[in-house]
Specification:
- The complex is a heterodimer of chains A (285) and B (477).
- Chain A is α/β, with parallel strands linked by helices and 285 residues long.
- Chain A is built from 9 helices and 16 strands.
- In chain A, 48% of the residues are buried.
- With 477 residues, chain B is of the alpha/beta class.
- Chain B is built from 17 helices and 16 strands.
- Chain B is globular, with a radius of gyration of 23 Å.
- Chain B is 34% helix and 16% strand.
- The chains are: A alpha/beta (285), B alpha/beta (477).
Chain lengths: 285, 477
Amino acid sequence: MYKIIHKEQLHEIIYSMWIEAPEVAQSVEPGQFIILMIKEQGERIPLTVADFNREKGLIRIVFQIVGKTSEELSTLKEGDRLFSFIGPLGKKTEIENYGKVITVGGGTGIACIHPITRALKEAGNEVISIIGARNKTLIIMEEEIKKASSKLIVTTDDGSYGRKGFVTQVLKELLDKDQSIKKVWVIGPAIMMKVACETTKPYPVETIVSLNSIMVDGTGMCGSCRITIGGETKLVCTDGPEFDGQLVDWTEFMNRLSRYKDSEKRSWDLYQEPIHSCICGEGAK
Amino acid sequence: MAEMIPPKERMQREQVLMPEQKPQERSHNFQEVPLGYTKKQAIYEAQRCLQCKNPKCVPGCPAEINIPQFIKKIVEEDFAGAYRDILKTDSLPAITGRVCPQEEQCQQVCILEKQGKPIAIGRLERFVADWARKNNIHGDLPQVRKKEQRVAVVGSGPAGLTCAADLAKLGYQVTIFEALHQTGGVLVYGIPEFRLPKSIVEYEVKEIEKLGVKVVTDFVVGTTKSVDQLNQEFDAIFLANGAGAPRFMNIPGENLNDVYSANEFLTRSNLMKAYLFPEYDTPIKIGKRAATIGAGNVAMDSARTALRLGAEKSYIVYRRSRKEVPARAEEVHHAEEEGIIFHFLTLPIQVLGDNKGNVVGMECLRMELGEPDDSGRRRPIPIPGSNFLIEVDMVIDAIGTKANPIVARSATGVKINHWGYFMIDDITKMTTKEGIFAGGDIVRGSATVISAVGDGKVAARAINDYLVLSKSMEKRF
């Protein structure tokens, strides 16, 4: 179980993997996430499902190297097995025929909006997707998103590909131009989701965000992922991961994402430090 | 073989104390605190047992252990026999021998309790189980014909493990579904290594697997598969998923970075082994001054864990007085020995943070005790204007748990009560849906390991009754 069937490097620091997990693939729905562990000594990390294949029993994950665990995960090869792979977790996206909707993805959030976009289109929506990154090389899964949506707009901060600027600028233009847009999904870095919510606030659209909190069990047991939503404490793992973005306490959310910043850095530094264990004596110094 | 001693001498002899790690040493390590009896100590203690004709201790044991019988075998130095006697009804002897509140159960009703020196039944049970493990002595495999009927057990905590073992002994095909990557439930994520070494849990789970019980980890009943789906595949289901959701006080500042639920704090340390960071990858906050709110066993575990991780000061903050502390006396005693500081009659009303979300202090009110409340304990009442600050940099909420809704959400027709716990019939132990049973904390609310073990046993019998009956109905129609 949990064998890596296919691995692809999408960018210098972004990887895609298809994992064998038949039971998860059988029941997963767009918007849900999984938790994996590389090894017994590893930590449990949540990743939103980027795609799934029920027939073949596979789940696709896309991740960026941001610390020790993601870097170690990137070193695994096809045929290697993960120690643990649990899911699907969290509530599924509320897919309905809303009419016209927008899905926005930034960074690896592009991967997360993929199954949501596809399901929205299949449900009969006209889906405009906006994906963005710092530069051209960081734009991932463009073909898949293009196929999954009715229309795709790509932005890069530096203008090296697509439109120059941020996804939020395009989002604002679309909302200005078209009053019939009913709902917006935004998934990406916390700061991007926050700015997107500020952008959509004056418009009569609901903005759904998917929060990537720090978790341990991911099943509602520990409360590590809790967050204030509209003045009430909610658990991202069982009440989310999707919430009305206008109700999210973004300051609290971003503070809580940095809970283990120092430990994470220490862990990553130790991992990257070359182990010197030959007999030349250098290691002892 | 040691000799039985005359009754008079039995009455005179004092209880044998169990050696322990010294407080100043153990407060800096995660090794077990009590070290266990030696063979000689166990025999010496066992000799004190009066071997009552109508032993009160046996009905006092939810695991239904024939206590005088196994104690007699200790005296006879037949430790393997003693182990097999215990295993007949208790599949988790090294665990229950450690974490049972014997002083409220078997030992409370021991005739010698009247003299203040009941037989140390828990310590003897622990001795026997540890001896068997070290000497590679195993229980007998069930000598019954395998039955075709399949039972799903949801959750691998003490209730689930016990029920699964008892059903396997009756010949049923049992599969346990565990949401985490490791088996044991609260025994592995909740109770710290220094009270219950994880290798022991692992060992006793393996022994249960030898009975033919299949364990599936990484399987979240409720999302990986629903209870409804399992109901199609199995002849009966036992829901024992625990009351694993954290409870918070709902005071300002509770979502600051360094405020933990006891569940999170203990899960990081116990299950994920954050106390071995960076050798293990899961991080945990090492507070300088840690405040644990609450005074139950979980609060003691949390405060003592914080101390072992390196906190300079570890406080217990409790709104009632010492008299009302719900934790086992032994745990409170251990905590005090280790230097845990107790703030009684203190109610936190706000956690204070800096602009980065770090905890810098906690505002509290002093309390006084009024008239008894529903629980029979004197109600704590805040003293107006008594506000004061405790300087802390981390807070652990250990004020209890509540029902986790994800299993119930996926179980059509299984009714829950106002608090989210499964409702079961007093006699059949069945939920409101035929063939689905429940027990442990998801029925009782937060209780003890041994009450969960007891529920597991009762449920196994109820499930057997149900399956025997449904099988005979099948034949008739």
